[in-house]
Amino acid sequence: MPYDAREVANFFLDYADSREVPLTHLGLQKILYFAHAWYLAKYNVPLIGHKFEAWEYGPVIRVVFDQLKFLNRRKIDVRLKKIDPFTGAPFDAKYDFNDNTKVFLKNIFDYYGRIDPRALVDLTHEAGGAWEKVWKSTSQRSVVGMYIPDEAIKLWILRDGGREGMIRH
User: Fold this and answer.
1) How many CA atoms lie within 13 A of 83 on its CB side?
2) From CA 90, how far away is CA 75, in angstroms rounded?
3) What pLDDT score does 145 carry?
4) Is residue 130 included in any domain, yes or no?
5) Which residues have a Cβ under 8 Å from the Cβ of 65 and sit 6 or more positions away?
6) Which segment of 13-27, 28-42, 86-100, 142-156 scores lowest on mean pLDDT?
7) 147 is in which domain, residue-wise?
8) What is the dihedral of CA 154, 156, 160, 164, to 10 degrees?
9) Strands 81-83 and 58-60: what pairing?
């Protein structure tokens, strides 16, 4: 079963803090995208249950955006929350990943977390990539939610490796 994007985001935020790497909202969104793409390529199942949308600066998970937009370009110093459906009370989105998933996510962060977020945007905007196909299609037709299909993400990462080449996870 795919994970909640807020749980994966909180894992990356905790790991970034442990490595003393400042993480911005833009960087987090792109790292989530690359983690999802490589997970699809490696395991043939989605890492994240939420759909990525094609926005101007690349792939975005709306629920993550909505909770972090107030930070603008500042370092993230909060954790994402879920809402209790019975009480409406917010609570921290806690993750509980197996060891293989933790190693996978750490490897993703160790690689992509060192790349400037604007360069990550450029990687997601590759010609012929999953984001670009959805983004360009809006000029020809309406795209509800502008969702980027998982299959397109998987094919892009397998074909191009995010222009950075194949990395081991």
Assistant:
1) 6
2) 22
3) 66
4) yes
5) 25, 29
6) 142-156
7) 5-161
8) -70
9) unpaired
Angstrom distances, CA of residue 135 to CA of 26, 101, 128, 145: 18, 30, 11, 11
**Contacting residues for 126 by C-beta, under 8 A, at least 6 apart:** 132, 156, 160, 162, 163
Query: Does some domain include residue 167?
Result: no
Token pair 């360069």 is found at: 119
- pLDDT of amino acid 142: 52
108: closest CA among 42, 158, 38?
38
pLDDT digits 0-9 by tens, 23-77 = 999 999 999 999 999 999 999 999 999 999 999 889 999 999 999 999 989 999 9
* 169: in domain: no
What domain count does the chain have? 1
Query: Residue 168 falls within a domain, yes or no?
Result: no
Residue 159: partners with Cβ closer than 8 Å, 6 or more residues away: none
Structure tokens at 1: 């079963």
